[in-house]
Fold this protein.
Amino acid sequence: MHTKEEKMKAFGRLLDVLDDLRERCPWDKKQTNESLRPNTIEETYELCDALIKDDAHEICKELGDVLLHVCFYARIGDEHRRFDIADVCNELVDKLIFRHPHVYHPSQIGAEEPRPLPYGTETGGGEAGAGTVSTARQVVENWEQIKLKEKDGNKSVLSGVPDALPALIKAYRIQDKARNVGFDWEDKKDVWTKVHEELGELQAELRNEDKERSTEELGDFLFSVINAARLYRLNPDTALERTNRKFINRFNYIEEHSIKMGKPLKDMPLEEMDALWEEAKREERNKRLK
């Protein structure tokens, strides 16, 4: 792997090329925060796609695309004399130091006002996991308390959850943040009572054919299932995406066979599609066993 000096040189090369493109390329010249935003969202999803596939080459490539956008926004900030990439890095480092008193300020754990080290100060002393923080979960709980004390930090426990997050991920983050301040089930098994309760209420409204109430109860039911996943340390977004991919692969298998048979899918009996579906499942299992 590369040395720190080589990494710094590569990052400097990226900034040099971006500066060059901003000055000489017609497309790069005209970009703004607003015009880049849709592309940033797309690049982020492409990175997430590579991550779930665990494709190292694609992850590396997509990380580069996301990094380009970070540097591009910083370049635009620099042009407007608002901030530059150094400000972005320093702001991040100062925040990391402030939020990790168990690493940089062991003596400050539990103190009323943890103090960040100024930029450029030698951190020295203290071991990770020192003081009362010894597990990853304790770190996160401490983190949430510290964020409420930051000058420009969250004003409330849930204010740090972005409004624009996809609903499934947003529900998980809301529940997780509430857990970090002690609002959670004492016994995770108790969540299943809530799941069954919400399912019953949904089924009742569906029988009543009340669309508005059914929509509300469906939301409550999904929220409770996500809560159960969180308590059992399962990522519901990852789980659902795996199921999406599984469905796509199996349905594509059916469609491919319908094309080979010269029979349109809409003309294929459901029993025949079910048989091909089961065949696709068997092939998946055989591939896993190899």
Observations:
- Residues 20 and 258 are 53 Å apart (CA to CA).
- The mean pLDDT is 86.
- The chain is about 70% helix and 0% strand.
